[in-house]
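Pinned message: reference record for Androglobin
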Amino acid sequence: MSKKIETTKSVLDIQVSTSDCPFREFRDNELSTDYWGLGSIAFKTALRMGKGGPKTQSDHVWVDDQIQPLPRSARKRLHGWMRAEDLAQNQWKADVTVFEDNNGGKMSTADIQFAHYQVLQMSAFCRRVLSMCYMLERAEGFTVEHQWDNFVFYVPPEGWRARYHIYSPGMKHGGGQQHRPALSKNGCYLVRLYYIGAWRCVWVSDQVPVDSSGAPLLPLAPFFNQASTKPAGRQYITNTTVHLWPLLLCKALLKLAAPDMNTDDGSDYMEDEPMKDMDILHALTGSLNLTYYIEDADELWKLITTEVQLFTWDEDDETYSSNVKSKTKKPGTKENSVIKRRSLTTVLIEETRNVPPFTLPGITPAFEMHLLVVMARDLPLKKPLPEPEVAPWKHHRWIDWARKHGLYEEYDCPRTRFLKMSGLLKLSLAPHLLDVQSTESITFGFREEHARTTPGIKKTGKDKYPSVTTSETVAQLREELREWVQFDAIQKLMKSISTLCFPSMYQFCSIASNPPMRITKLPPNKEIDIPAPKNAPLYLQIDAPEEMYLKISCSMLHPRVFLNANQPIEEYVEPGYVLLETFQWFTDCEIPKSKAYLQTRGYDSTEVSFKPGRHFCRLWIHSRVPWYVMLLSESTIHVGTRDVIQMASIRVCPWASRFLTTLGTAFQNFMRTNKSNSCLTSADREFYRSYQPDLDWNPKEVGFSKSHIHWMFRQALQSTLEKKLPPFEYRSICTIFQHYFNDPDFGLSKKELSSVSSKNLIINDLCDCTLSEAEEIEISKIQYNDADIDDKTVDDQPTICNAASEKLPCGILKSIRDKTIKRHEAATCIQAHWRGIRARRCLDTRVTVTPEIMKYLTENVFGNQETLTTLMNEFFYMFPGAKSAYSVSSALTGTSGLKQYNGVSPVTPQCTWVPYFQAVFYCHAPVKIHFDLQSSIGMNKVNCTFEVYNNDTKKQLPQVYTAHLTFDFSPNIDGYTVIGHGILKQPTIASSEIRWQLTMMSSVENVFHVCDNEMDGCKELPILSVTKLHLEEIFIPNQRNILGGIQIYVLKHEIISFRAAATSPDLEMEAVLRTTEKSGEVTELATCSGTGEIYWPFIRLEPAEMTLQSISHANVNTVIYFIHITIFLKPKIKVKSVLHYYSTCW
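Predicted structure (tokens):
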């Protein structure tokens, strides 16, 4: 019996951790009545027991096991709870339905404001929820994001409706017109909301919070007319049906927002808390909602015009009505008129309680509200007439005079900026003005008619009474005109602007702390729901040939959500953060370069920009609760672990491939055409433009003027050909290029400029005197004003020309100097003449491009992506400053090397420490290395570590911070030992295997690897898994307290690692390495100690010295090493029973 009870307890024991969201993921196959209303824990219990939940009877009211939060305005007035059906009958004698069946009709501003007048006046949260629903109904081309095999939802052409998020028992999945939730007999409803990276099931009841008078504190009421808003007016019900969807959505969103229920104790403040960490649009759509705070009007207008459609005129129609409906027509040729993607742009304006109504007609006065921006324009709605052709001298006399007197309006085109906006809370502080239409005095037609100088003609007969159709059209036009608001007027009231970005319109990546396990028919997308490593950052690559924008959002599960779900976290949970850090491979950075930072307890987003090219970033994410990060960009992005991005970094970007293909094609056309020395053909221009820079050219940074770009490219081409081709073929191709490039110096070796010139000969001549000695003395007297010269005789003065002598007087030296200068000048003229003849011969000689020449060029330089990449890399190697002018410089491959080693290591039972490999790498040139070690056992990741030791010094290299620094290696004698191993969280019960992968990225290719280290040419070797010796022994108390030991025979240089662990974590142990000399003397070499565990990662064992006698006797060269483990028993530690310990050597 007890065994059965223990089995039942183990089945029902569902452990709750902070990695599980209280709201389970929504799936189509779980809309069963058996599991209806079950929370996360109850649902897991029901699945484990293999039975459904308790059968819900119609007369039993469902009780929510979670706490239902309320905003402050409702908490302060809360008197009790009532079911929605009872409240509707008692208060209004009305029936209850979930939604309004109006054939796809949208929410009406007047109906919502009149019906929920009291709630909207007191609750800011309810105003936000209903405003967001109002705007989503007007979103064009809406689709449900994040669909997969077990969640498919079709949105009808009518667009988004709030009822699509509400489910009642017995509903079918799939969406569409069949999605019609009915009343739930037990009062339990499912609301589907997006939260922490998935659509979630949020269970709510139809219980309504009421105040002392029985009025609802959340939106639940029938539709009233305007008279109900007056203080002493009678309520006239226009619809005898109460809709539940506003109540259910508000209650579900409040569960995600989780406001603090204890902050208003003893306070008289009645306004709702801001709840800024809650984003309603993100929860309703699963999209990234990005908020901008822009004060500059021009910058704000630029952002709006890039996100919404611009109003344009029709070229073939000049009527007034056709231009009003231009939102459904194709945009014209005006700049920025085409919107590449679908987004939802909203603006938040501050409260306009004290603003006069005529400030923004139709909008003020109102609460703080969100407005949907539908369209923008800086043109008049009515297309002006073409300006009359007038002589320039008449402009001042006629045109300027007409403008001054208001007679030129029909020709003028003012560029006043307008926004077409709609919102639910317009005139929310004066809803009685909603039905008040604009008088004729402020309509466009009235102003146009009364602007004329001649009086209007009175209409008579049939024209006196317009038709009903005409009146309806005019009313519709007036309503549309009321939506146009001057940008300058409303910009002063704007607090922020938000853009809702749909993931299906962008390159989309997502990261999750605990992504759900999904079994799909198709291979899963590796860029979605990437599991984040626990002890390392994730890496990001973004690349594009133009300026890039990366949008990042982070959603964290608020700790109060656990509290409301009866799963409280006792300790304090700090806000989570996301740090985006930019870096470059092989460039050490002591301090991280932060690009973006987010810190939140709920939801937050930001946008960062990158220059054209390829960039690499690290994503540091920290949170003790479940979290989800979303990344969107129009450019190509890749997110993954370090090895994944290292593999992506060695591949050429697609747009870089297009650049190389264009260069190769242009060269092929360039070589096929006949060349002329006097003019350039189209093929020549195409080739010279194919390698032009696409970014700004800064001469100071590049080191050369942009006019030297062709010479720089020819230098790189010449260097590439010289490295790849034999001498004969190289000279043949240079002869061709001398003619094609009009460059006689192409292919010639660089000669150092001669230091001999006429000027140098004159300066360096020892006999530089040109005057007589007497004249030189007189000049020196005047120049130096030396009084001693007068006292001395001429014979005492030193000779001016030191080289002159009796045999070689100054005259002969001067004649020699003059002859040398003349010979040098003659040689210069002859050389210039020869170079001119050679240049004319190279330019005038007709050359023939043979198939062999084209074959050499195709195979070595311009034939494929690899050779073209080599050419451009040589260009950037010779002129590194030019990288700043080319976006393609960061998108090429071939600048670094990448190697991957894979292996399998066995895992023995009751073992947590698993060695992977131990290899000796030899370095042939100075190099920087990035190491990355990944391993997994089944589907679970294993924590990996590695160490690097210098075999010459027998010391460990500084364990660099793997995120910021690299390992620097230099050539040595015995190489470097790289050791990798993994540590399991829990020991395995049975034997298994761990698959490991070592990724090594080097700044120079093929100079650091495992090889035989031969002088003539090394042979690369694979990395083998290590051989592990695992011993399990029992400690028997002895006098010397020796736990055990290992004896090792060494025939060659060996490196081993040793680890010992005892079952007592407080036991102090010491491992001693000893060896026995030939004389029999025992020598102690090294020691290693630890408490509970000893880890000795690097032990280098050397054999005996080789002698002539030991060559034929192998045993003579053997050295025996001992590793003894000694324990230290403290008085507090008593060995009551035998002590187990495990030792591993490999």
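Pinned by admin. Summary line: Residues 400 and 999 are 75 Å apart (CA to CA).
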